Structure to design on (462 residues):
């Protein structure tokens, strides 16, 4: 952080005597001033908010990290992407805020049209802008209730759809997220198609059959009056779970059979990350609604629900103060344009496939790696006590995350009970991806070599 920026902070916060470049110091202050959320302060140091380029980021102490999270699937173009500074200069005369849901402006109309054009399905679509992924899900739920006149939804386990009212009612990813909070929506819960942990075995088709049959039974037992089926087209927080395409196709059929809408939650998986604009396109399924956020705002809060028209037929059924503000909408159009112009969707699909393959090869001999899976730049490595028992190895996973961050300077995230997820920026090239694999494998080795040694000592003991 340069001196000018430190002075700026001191000018903004009168009385700020010093700005130490120490993670420990700022973590202590953060603990006092910020409400507890999902921070893992014993793992991640404080990031220097003035440095970062492409896939490289820095902590306050100046250590450089290879970023494999893109801020939880947010920075599709990486840090300070090419052309961004010039683009921002061209926004100098654009005003910041307009209540877009009350008064129209050109940027948000163009963004709505552009987004709708990326979505599959040969029908008219409308877009509702929100300020987060959870709110995009809330919007879809309200629109589905409006369109069908029903109030019951299908959701899966595991599933993550956000932490607000209706979205939380659909979420089933970690008990702590729900415990003690009321259920705001009638939800029929069914098993997500998760072949690695499917009770009928790992065959994808058998797993689809099991999940869909269980869902069909649950609908018959709990209520056929379903308004919508809400599904992550690729499970994110639950552990990077790639469902068989037949599962998503089956959900389309069930939705049609019961006159319900199919809602694809692509807040994490969407916008090119898996090698298509939308992950559900791998199954050639057109959902009635798509929820998006994260990468759409390029680091600022923007979500959207893209839905079959008409989304709401009466005025005032749904609204937020903030919407796709003019500067925000133009930035999002810049992101979509760059993704297309630089073939980043193709890059994510191709480099991601190479990465998965290399990880599989490198980790093939490790009994604690249960499965390496993913699509494009949405990758997960699930850790188990051993391949036979498949028991979750959550603590081992946590130690490997720490090794990645502390000793390999590789910025990664956990997901599910024992998975590490990699969500590289769409600009990541093959060399950077291979560097990430090398660092990751070293972080795994640090633990598993120690585990092997420990076992040998135990085995050799008299
Ligand atoms: C699939 C999915 N849906 C919804 C959300 C909630 O998004 P937000 O945190 O912006 O509310 C997330 C966030 O991780 C997500 O991964």
């Amino acid at each position: 952080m340069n001196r000018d920026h430190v002075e700026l902070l001191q000018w903004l916060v009168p009385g700020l005597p010093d700005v130490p470049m120490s993670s420990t110091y700022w973590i202590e202050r953060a603990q006092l001033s910020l409400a507890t959320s999902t921070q893992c302060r014993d793992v991640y140091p404080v990031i220097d908010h003035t440095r970062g380029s492409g896939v490289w980021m820095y902590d306050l102490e100046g250590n450089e990290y290879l970023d494999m999270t893109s801020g939880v699937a947010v920075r599709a173009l990486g840090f300070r992407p090419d052309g961004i500074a010039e683009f921002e200069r061209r926004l100098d005369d654009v005003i910041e805020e307009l209540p877009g849901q009350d008064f129209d402006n050109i940027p948000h109309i163009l963004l709505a049209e552009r987004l709708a054009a990326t979505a599959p399905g040969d029908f008219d679509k409308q877009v509702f802008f929100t300020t987060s992924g959870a709110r995009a899900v809330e919007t879809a739920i309200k629109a589905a209730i409006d369109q069908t006149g029903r109030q019951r939804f299908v959701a899966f386990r595991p599933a993550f759809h956000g932490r607000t009212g209706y979205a939380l009612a659909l979420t089933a990813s970690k008990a702590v997220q729900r415990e003690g909070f009321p259920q705001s929506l009638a939800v029929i819960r069914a098993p997500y198609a998760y072949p690695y942990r499917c009770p009928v075995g790992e065959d994808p088709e058998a797993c689809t059959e099991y999940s869909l049959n269980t869902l069909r039974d649950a609908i018959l037992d709990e209520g056929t009056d379903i308004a919508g089926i809400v599904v992550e087209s690729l499970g994110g927080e639950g552990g990077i779970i790639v469902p068989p395409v037949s599962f998503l196709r089956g959900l389309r059929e069930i939705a049609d059979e019961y006159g319900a809408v199919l809602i694809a939650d692509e807040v994490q998986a969407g916008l090119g990350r898996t090698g298509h604009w939308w992950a559900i396109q791998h199954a050639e399924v057109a959902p009635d609604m798509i929820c998006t956020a994260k990468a759409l705002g390029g680091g600022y809060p923007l979500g959207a629900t893209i839905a079959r028209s008409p989304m709401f037929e009466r005025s005032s059924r749904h609204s937020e103060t903030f919407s796709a503000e003019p500067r925000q909408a133009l930035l999002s159009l810049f992101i979509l344009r760059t993704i297309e112009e630089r073939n980043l969707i193709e890059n994510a699909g191709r480099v991601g496939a190479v990465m998965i393959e290399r990880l599989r090869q490198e980790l093939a001999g490790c009994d604690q790696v249960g499965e390496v899976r993913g699509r494009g730049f949405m990758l997960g490595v699930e850790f188990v006590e051993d391949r036979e028992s498949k028991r979750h190895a959550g603590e081992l996973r946590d130690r490997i995350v720490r090794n990645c961050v502390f000793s390999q300077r590789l910025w990664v995230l956990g997901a599910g009970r024992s998975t590490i997820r990699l969500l590289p920026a769409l600009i990541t090239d093959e060399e950077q991806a291979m560097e990430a694999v090398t660092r990751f494998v070293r972080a795994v080795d640090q633990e598993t070599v120690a585990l092997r040694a420990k076992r040998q000592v135990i085995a050799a003991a008299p």
User: Anything to note?
Assistant: DSSP finds 14 helices and 14 strands in the chain. The pocket of pyridoxal-5'-phosphate is lined by residues 132-134, 137, 160-162, 232, 236-237, 265, 267-268, 293 (CB under 6 Å). The two ends are 57 Å apart (CA to CA).
